[in-house]
Amino acid sequence: MKKILVTGALGQIGSELVVKCREIYGNDNVIATDIRRNASRVVEEGPFEIVDVTDESALFETAKKYKVDTIIHLAALLSATAEKKPVFAWNLNMGGLMNALEVARNLNCQFFTPSSIGAFGPTTPKDQTPQDTIQRPTTMYGINKVAGELLCDYYYKKFGVDTRGVRFPGLISYVTPPGGGTTDYAVDIYYKALEEGHYTSYIAEGTYMDMMYMPDALSAIIQLMEADPSELKHRNAFNITAFSAAPEDFANAIRRHIPDFTMDYDVDPVRQAIAESWPNSLDDSAAREEWGFKPEFDLDKMTEDMLSKLKVKKMA
Ligand code: AKB
């Protein structure tokens, strides 16, 4: 990766990935794009352009203007919002991906886009879900993710576009909150623990999903994009996980720092149904073997860091 264009750069992943990539590759070599502008490091510290990913020519012109050789396509709706707006989700998630792949093909760019644990469904083996297994998701988001994985493989096989991807679990970060996901509770719980000492979980006790702290997610993207292509047996997309946890595991980890923290439940049937259709835990051995994926943060290490960073953020 030398000159990178990032779509959805102000979202949960983009707002940290752009900063990290600029540290590695130089400010001018990471072009951030989004459909809006805000006062942030992403906008202020390097090239930033307003681009709607459903407008292929705008995306193409921006990529051409900056002579990019890599596209990291992050603009998408998450699972819970996609369930509320399925047609909009299809148009944005699939239309945006198709446009970004076409730009990558025309400008000969390397390409990354994230898939998700949402690419699995109720008939997928739930525990230690294999890399290659049944993928019959029952959500619009999941359908978009499976179709996206296949489309990226197609562009690799048919046109030789160097497409790579991971299936992200729930991502936890203190920088930019996620919006409209099923795993968002695992971020909200930390904010509420510090603000109110209490959290009401919309996901039921005993519901396990894979999770990951953002620094591990960012390293995974960069490591996979830098990986030797001859080592990659898979491409779109690798299972990756840091740990599997249910709401009560987060509560117990938080209590080791805030002993009076309490949690109760008010389960949201829509997000609970989505969570129940997803795996409890992934087998990420293909990512470990093919490109050396190795997360640094488990639940306790992440909780310690998350709470201390959020305290500093609150004081600022
Ligand atoms: C969501 O909950 O929709 C995302 C995901 C796991 O893809 N965080």
Class derived from helix and strand content: alpha/beta
Number of domains: 2
User: In percent, how much strand structure appears in the residues?
Assistant: 5-15%
Q: What is the CATH T-level topology of the largest domain? A: Rossmann fold
Order of strands side by side in the largest beta sheet?
A: 3-2-1-4-5-7
Strand/helix succession? EHEHEHEHHEEHEEEHEEHEEHEHHH
Taken from the alpha-carbon principal axes, the silhouette is globular
> Number of helical segments?
12
Low-confidence stretches: none
The CATH homologous superfamily name of the largest domain equals NAD(P)-binding Rossmann-like Domain
Bin the helical content: 40-55%
> Compounds present?
2-amino-3-ketobutyric acid
Calculate Rg over CA atoms.
19 Å
Measured distance between first and last alpha carbons: 34 Å
User: What about the largest sheet?
Assistant: 6 strands, parallel
Mean pLDDT: 97
Q: Please name the CATH architecture of the largest domain.
A: 3-Layer(aba) Sandwich
**Assigned CATH class of the largest domain:** Alpha Beta
* Record field, number of beta strands: 14
